[in-house]
Amino acid sequence: MIRNWKTNFDVKLQAMFDEIVELARSLDLLHYDVEGPFIISSDVRSWGICEYTKEGKANIGINPRTFSNDFVVRTVLVHEIAHACLPYDGHSAKWKLVGDKIGSRYGITVSRTNDYSEFGVKSWEDVNPPKYIIRCPGCGFTWGYHRMSQCVRNPNGFRCGKCHTKLVRDL
């Protein structure tokens, strides 16, 4: 079912991508070749990615978890295309100005991170809950672990950094 939906969405996704790239070029912000969008693994924490190649191109990727809402897809694309406009500039003030200039057409303000739960998009943590929970019985603080580790194997050998109580494993 998702596969068919994704196929139908490809045309719309490509149209959104092309529109935002064209807008960035018309604003004289984008001076590099940009390819995409390609689909990144839904297992990763990031919503999108901008990778630079040796040939001077930027490849834009997007996480399929964002596909449930057009505004979220457009926000992620604007964010990543702003990176393509300023290679290796990170999340600087200049990057934010460029992203906000591109996003203003769509009512988007770019930021380093976003929580799209209000749009029904599940976070990485919601999709991949931790397998192991370590808890401090003293202060109640918890840590989630996805892999077996020393602390998961032997929580009694570790103490809480806050109240120095020995830890216990809940899951």
Please explain how this structure is put together.
This protein is α+β, with helices and mostly antiparallel strands and 171 residues long. The protein is elongated. It has a three-stranded mixed β-sheet, with helices on one face. The chain is built from five helices and six strands. The longest helix has 25 residues, at 2-26. It is 35% helix and 16% strand.
Helix content: 25-40%
Strand content: 15-25%
Strand order of the largest sheet: 1-3-2
Number of strands: 6
The largest β sheet comes out as: 3 strands, mixed
CA gyration radius, whole angstroms: 20 Å
The outline comes out as: elongated
* Uncertain stretches of 5 or more adjacent residues: 1-6
Average pLDDT reading: 87
What is the string of SSEs from the N terminus onward?
HEEEHHHEEHE
Oligomeric state as shown:
single chain
Structural class: alpha+beta
Gap from first CA to last CA: 33 Å
Specify the number of helices: 5
Key attributes of the depicted protein:
171 residues, alpha+beta, 3-stranded mixed sheet, 3-stranded antiparallel sheet, 5 helices, 16% strand, elongated, disordered N terminus
Layout of secondary structure:
Blueprint: H1 2-26, E1 33-39, E2 48-52, E3 57-62, H2 70-85, H3 93-103, H4 124-127, E4 132-135, E5 142-145, H5 150-153, E6 168-169
Parallel strand pairs: 1-3
Antiparallel strand pairs: 2-3, 4-5, 4-6
Describe the structure concisely:
The protein has helices spanning 2-26, 70-85, 93-103, 124-127, 150-153; strands at residues 33-39, 48-52, 57-62, 132-135, 142-145, 168-169.
